[in-house]
Amino acid sequence: MVHPLDHPLFQRISHWINLINFLVLGLTGWAIHSPQPGMPINLIRNLHFIFMYLLIINGVIRFYFSFFGKNKDYDQILLNKQDVKNIWPQTKYYLFIGKHPETGKYNPLQKIAYIALPIMSVFQAITGAILYWPVKFAGLAGYFGGLASVRGLHYIVMWLFIVVVAIHVYLVFTAAYEQFLFMFFGKMKNQKGL
């Protein structure tokens, strides 16, 4: 059973904002990578950057509240010794070849994803800035092997985002549907009005 304190309103709003940000960034990123004739590419690039800034701002605020907010939850997101032991059993459970291990609010694979997503977002912001201002950041591009490498890395990490989000959505609908209902509607199936 999901308890309201498991996902306070601020965390749910932050999650909604991330959903919109990732969706727009993925679509506009794909359009930038593979533009079609007649596409308003400047508008698409501007949207891409606006939503990148929104993602970073939301991430900074969420990070701050994870450590200093009323409902701080950093200790539930960071990996501990038990999580490390449960990585393989949790993986086996998801592959339908093992039992579900005892975990806290988040299992170890969720924690790895929640730690990786902000790191990947910062990487995407850096490589995106290099691609947008190639002359200004020519030296930085050199650290990644040149502009073509930066473009390739940016593209690969976009696909990592897509894979992580697809797995997340799949698992939500197959293993945590009540969490989905609560995250988006603040109610569960057995509550009135839903």
Structural commentary:
With 194 residues, the protein is mostly helical. The chain has one domain. It is 72% helix and 0% strand. The chain has eight helices and no strands. Helix 1 crosses helix 7.
Write the topology of this structure:
Blueprint (H helix, E strand, L loop, with lengths): L8 H25 L7 H28 L5 H4 L3 H14 L13 H25 L5 H6 L3 H29 L1 H9 L9
The averaged pLDDT comes out at 87
State the domain count. Answer: 1
Helix content: over 70%
Which sequence of SSEs, written as H and E, runs from N to C?
HHHHHHHH
User: Tell me about the biggest sheet?
Assistant: none
The tally of strands reads 0
Question: In angstroms, what separates the terminal alpha carbons?
Answer: 16 Å
| Low-confidence runs | none
The rough form would be described as globular
Comma- or semicolon-separated keywords:
194 residues; mainly alpha; 8 helices; 72% helix
Tell me briefly what this model is.
The chain is mainly alpha-helical. It contains eight helices and no strands. The chain has one domain (4-19, 53-185).
